[in-house]
């Protein structure tokens, strides 16, 4: 647990224990059900106004290198008129950045912890959205890498990478998209809890979230286009292979035909009595095969 006090107070709790929850209970008369929820993560994001405090659950995407996809992280906010309590269940970069800014920038600390707790919430979520924006970098890097390798005859390998990237974008969207609704709700609820003046700051958060989602939509469209192009290249390569096999099968047809004829009884006896027939037939098949080969090469089929 870490605490920064000025005119207002920010309390940050990571991996809360029952002792931590008891300390939070002493800070304010929070509902027992909410206090119990702080001991584990929540399934959904929400904003709930109570008589003299707000409860906010916010989810943010975190990239997991092992699964090559984004997973959900959570920050819970307990907001009163003079305190903001954040609870999270792992070490989070945006909260660490906010902590450092308060400790290293006296002007920022004065501006953030002197007016209203709405300012604290605004700067915290702003830091989270900036982090979410940075989390898009690995998607951007993967998209750029796929674009560069698209025409290097690696269609089969790219197919797997595109699938991983599409799953990552989908997981990121599933986590982040509902937060837009939460921020809209916070803008309305916050205007009543603090004052209408705070709405301009909360509207700014809605705009920042929209920018993140627009970037994600652009990446999704780009990956869809890359997947379509890669599939076309793979189909073209498959068709070329099938064409070559068809041509080879056609080239061997005269030989198969002559062999089948020679298997007939009276023809076999005739060839046995006269080897010149066999030689002539062999030369004929050879000439036809060479002629077909030259014809196919002239047409560019092989």
| Order of helix and strand elements from N to C terminus | EEHHEEEEHHHHHHHHH
What kind of sheet is the major sheet? Answer: 6 strands, mixed
**Count of DSSP E strands?**
6
Unreliable segments (pLDDT under 50, ≥5 consecutive)? Answer: none
- The CATH topology assignment of the largest domain is Beta Polymerase, domain 2
Provide the spatial order of strands within the biggest beta sheet. Answer: 1-2-6-5-4-3
Beta-strand content? 5-15%
Give the averaged pLDDT, no decimals.
84
Structural class: alpha+beta
Question: What keyword list fits this structure?
Answer:
alpha+beta; Beta Polymerase, domain 2; 2 domains; 302 residues; six-stranded mixed sheet
Give a structural overview:
- With 302 residues, the protein is α+β, with helices and mostly antiparallel strands.
- Helix content is 67%, strand content 14%.
- It is built from 11 helices and 6 strands.
- Strands 1-2-6-5-4-3 form a 6-stranded mixed beta sheet.
- A hairpin with a 3-residue loop joins strand 1 and strand 2.
- Helix 6 packs parallel to helix 8 and helix 10 packs across helix 11.
- The longest helix is centred in the last third of the chain and has 53 residues.
What can be said about this structure in brief?
The chain is α+β, with helices and mostly antiparallel strands. 67% of the residues lie in helices and 14% in strands.
């Amino acid at each position: 647990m870490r605490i920064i006090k000025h005119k207002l107070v920010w309390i940050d709790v990571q991996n809360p224990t029952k002792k931590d929850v008891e300390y939070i209970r002493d800070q304010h008369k929070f509902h027992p059900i909410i206090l119990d929820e702080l001991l584990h993560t929540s399934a959904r994001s929400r904003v709930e106004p109570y008589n003299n405090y707000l409860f906010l659950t916010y989810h943010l995407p975190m990239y997991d290198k092992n699964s090559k996809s984004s997973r959900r992280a959570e920050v819970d906010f307990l907001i009163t008129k003079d305190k903001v309590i954040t609870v999270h269940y792992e070490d989070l970069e945006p909260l660490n950045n906010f902590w450092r800014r308060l400790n290293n920038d006296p002007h920022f600390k004065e501006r953030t912890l002197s007016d209203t707790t709405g300012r604290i919430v605004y700067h915290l979520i702003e830091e989270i959205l900036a982090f979410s924006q940075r989390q898009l970098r690995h998607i951007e890097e993967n998209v750029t890498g796929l674009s560069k390798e698209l025409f290097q005859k690696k269609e089969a390998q790219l197919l797997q990478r595109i699938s991983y990237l599409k799953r990552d974008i989908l997981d990121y969207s599933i986590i982040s998209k509902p937060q837009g609704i939460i921020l809209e709700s916070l803008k309305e609820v916050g205007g009543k809890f603090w004052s209408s003046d705070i709405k301009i700051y909360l509207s700014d958060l809605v705009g920042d979230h929209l920018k993140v989602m627009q970037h994600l939509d652009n990446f999704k469209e780009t990956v869809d286009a890359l997947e379509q192009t890669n599939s076309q290249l793979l189909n073209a390569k498959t068709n070329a292979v099938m064409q070559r096999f068809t041509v080879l099968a056609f080239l061997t047809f005269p030989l198969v035909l002559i062999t089948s004829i020679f298997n007939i009884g009276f023809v076999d006896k005739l060839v046995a009595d006269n080897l010149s027939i066999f030689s002539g037939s062999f030369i004929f098949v050879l000439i036809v095969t060479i002629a077909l080969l030259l014809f196919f090469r002239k047409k560019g089929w092989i």
